[in-house]
Amino acid sequence: MDIRTKLSQWSRSSEAMGTRYLLVLLLVLLVLRFEVQGAHEPQQDETTSSALLTQMQESLYSYWGTARSAAEDLYKKAYPTTMDEKIRDIYSKSTAAVSTYAGIFTDQLLSMLKGDS
């Protein structure tokens, strides 16, 4: 897979996540609207309002669980493979560079201590 394909997939998944967050925000605003609208109306039965609240809570919890599992799946798919490879590559390159420069420094220090020209 080339980098363009990966970036394309990542941008599509981030767009999907943005859409999910927008839907959550709309649901919260909808619930708040019903709460404000309910404050202006005469009091209804406790059972009716508690049933509506329970139904809204269940649907929000269900949506939250779905969004959370989708985010976890995305994390499991994206992070371990790409990030671990990048970390291993950076580690191997940096240790190779450090060992090279440490060898040069050691040689220079030994030649200074011996007094060789």
Automatic annotation (TrEMBL):
Residues 1-38 form the signal peptide. GO terms for molecular function: phospholipase activator activity; phospholipase binding. InterPro entries: Apo-CII, ApoC-II_dom_sf. GO terms for biological process: lipid catabolic process; lipid transport; positive regulation of phospholipid catabolic process. GO terms for cellular component: chylomicron; high-density lipoprotein particle; low-density lipoprotein particle; very-low-density lipoprotein particle. Pfam families: Apo-CII (PF05355). It is found in: Secreted. Keywords: Chylomicron, Glycoprotein, HDL, LDL, Lipid degradation, Lipid metabolism, Lipid transport, Secreted, Sialic acid, Signal, Transport, VLDL. PANTHER family: APOLIPOPROTEIN C-II (PTHR16566:SF0). Component of chylomicrons, very low-density lipoproteins (VLDL), low-density lipoproteins (LDL), and high-density lipoproteins (HDL) in plasma. Plays an important role in lipoprotein metabolism as an activator of lipoprotein lipase. Belongs to the apolipoprotein C2 family. This is Apolipoprotein C-II. It comes from Vulpes vulpes (Red fox). The gene is APOC2.
